[in-house]
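User: I'm preparing a small set of examples for a lab meeting where we compare how different chains pack in three dimensions. I only have the primary sequence for this one, and I'd like the structure in token form so I can line it up with the others. Please keep the answer compact; I'll paste it straight into my notes.
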Amino acid sequence: MHGMLRSMVQGETKKRLDIERIAGIKRAARVFLTLHGGSGTDDEDLRKAIAAGINIVHINTELRVAWRHGLEHGLAKQPDEVVPYKILPSVVDSVKQVVGSRLKLFNGRHVGHGA
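Assistant: Understood. Below is the structure token output for the 115-residue chain.
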């Protein structure tokens, strides 16, 4: 599933993966595998999918949601500001947080809830 349901954006639900199927595909295909539509997937399922043979994980929607939340925060913090470079640092920080937490997860480092 590409993208995220509203309940996933709100953190209420997570996607689940069929880890056995991923492992079977990896054994049969013996090529690099990409998980398209990884945004909103349960962290433990992502760890298991990588262990089962996923090499690349796409999380574009998670980055878009972080971008949006960062923009909303920047605008709320400075509601009268019209200069983009004064508003956008919140956007960059928000995206950096998601990228950092995902890189740690994908590289096998423990990431706490909400990190």
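A couple of notes for your slides: Strands lie at 33-35, 54-57. Residues 33 and 55 are 5 Å apart (CA to CA).

User: Perfect, thanks.
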